[in-house]
Input
Amino acid sequence: QKEVEQNSGPLSVPEGAIASLNCTYSDRVSQSFFWYRQYSGKSPELIMSIYSNGDKEDGRFTAQLNKASQYVSLLIRDSQPSDSATYLCASGYSSASKIIFGSGTRLSIRP
Amino acid sequence: NAGVTQTPKFQVLKTGQSMTLQCAQDMNHNSMYWYRQDPGMGLRLIYYSASEGTTDKGEVPNGYNVSRLNKREFSLRLESAAPSQTSVYFCASSEAEYEQYFGPGTRLTVT
Output
């Protein structure tokens, strides 16, 4: 059973601080990893994808991948109240053309 | 370029009624997916279609059927709705196990 695990939260972070979201996955052959943001009542929105070990930065977001530890993280710098949402981690399952989602971490940015 | 569209946006059914949820994408993706999301829960895969002409069961297929009508369209049918199928349904499309893009969702209530 392929699994993606996340702490459900809520994670409360003060405005302007760094929010750190973590995720582990069980399938060693996964090659693609994704972070989605989902606001309440809305559909998931892709914010980052990462395929290689190391860091990938896009604006205030940095995704980190460590394949040896089967660990993916998302850092949000200078957190804003608009970052308050549920963040879903996902890994690609190449032999079946689908991705496996974690259950999400709820992030709350307090002013 | 509309991305992924879903109809209807909202639906109320009585137990035992049937309905079909429609999904279309204009990104020329081969793969399409149907998920359900219950309050406070993650995404659960119902069915997916890795390519035109193929469909496969996901995690929670019971009570549902799907049709991949062509490359653009993937429909989900509830033959005899039950209260346990009250949920938000999301359609998504992708190129194999890579980034998935979601539609706006259908909010279904079965009374």
The mean pLDDT of chain B is 95.
